[in-house]
Design a protein that fits this description.
Shape: elongated
Oligomer: single chain
Largest sheet: none
Number of helices: 4
Structural class: mainly alpha
Strand content: under 5%
Number of strands: 0
Order of helices and strands: HHHH
Distance between the termini: 54 Å
Radius of gyration: 22 Å
């Protein structure tokens, strides 16, 4: 099975310069924990980040759906005093 990103033939090469030592160390540890090479780990991070950001409309629809589910659990309306009290309760 050929990876989706390899089916087009020639691949673009990216060079990452001036990577801080602590970032490089974290990447190496993450790659090792995932049993991937550093290059494969970076590709995985890039692809998963881009996939997550790929469809903002679907993401917004999901957030709206969750908000509606939460809202359906409650009846009536909150007063300004109840909202202010809830805000104050959440503050340290």
């Amino acid at each position: 099975m050929t990876p989706e990103w390899l089916q087009g033939g020639a691949m673009t090469t990216l060079t990452v310069k001036n990577v801080p030592d602590h970032v490089h160390k974290k990447l190496r540890l993450r790659a090792s924990a995932s049993r991937r090479s550093l290059n494969s780990e970076l590709l995985h991070i890039i692809e998963s980040t881009l996939e997550a950001d790929q469809d903002p409309a679907a993401e917004a629809a999901g957030i709206l759906r969750k908000a509606r589910e939460l809202r359906s659990r409650f009846s009536g309306e909150l007063t300004s005093a109840e909202v202010d009290a809830a805000i104050d309760e959440g503050r340290p």
